[in-house]
Amino acid sequence: MKTKICATCQEEHTTLFRVQIQKGKVWIFVCKRCCEVHREGAFYRYGGTWKGYRH
């Protein structure tokens, strides 16, 4: 199983969410907990889910 590091809390996770939290074209991967925090921001955009396992 693969892992990636959350851009906000710097912890490893097997499922991350691709989001924009600032105006522009920069996308970051964040965990579920951090995604819920960023969701309240004015420039929040969801761009998909990354999973470290394959079916």
Low-pLDDT parts are none
Task: Give the C-alpha Rg.
Answer: 11 Å
C-alpha end-to-end distance = 11 Å
Order of helices and strands: EEEEHE
Mean pLDDT: 94
Taken from the alpha-carbon principal axes, the silhouette is globular
Strand content: 35-45%
Provide the helix percentage. Answer: 10-25%
Helix/strand class: mainly beta
What is the count of helical runs?
1
- Side-by-side strand order of the widest sheet: 4-3-5
Sheet having the most strands: 3 strands, antiparallel
Please provide the count of β strands.
Answer: 5
Tags for this model:
55 residues, single chain, 13% helix, two-stranded antiparallel ribbon, mainly beta
Secondary-structure blueprint:
Layout: E1 4-5, E2 12-13, E3 15-20, E4 28-30, H1 32-38, E5 45-51
Antiparallel strand pairs: 1-2, 3-4, 3-5
Protein name: Protein-arginine kinase activator protein McsA
Keywords: Kinase, Transferase
GO molecular function: kinase activity
Task: Please sum up the structure shown.
This protein is mainly β and 55 residues long. The chain has 1 helix and 5 strands; from the N terminus they run E-E-E-E-H-E.
3D architecture notes:
The protein is mainly beta and 55 residues long. The protein has one helix at residues 32-38, and strands spanning 4-5, 12-13, 15-20, 28-30, 45-51. A hairpin with a 7-residue loop joins strand 3 and strand 4. The strands form two sheets. A three-stranded antiparallel β-sheet has the order 4-3-5. The longest helix is centred in the middle third of the chain and has 7 residues, at 32-38. It is 13% helix and 36% strand. It has one helix and five strands; from the N terminus they run ββββαβ.
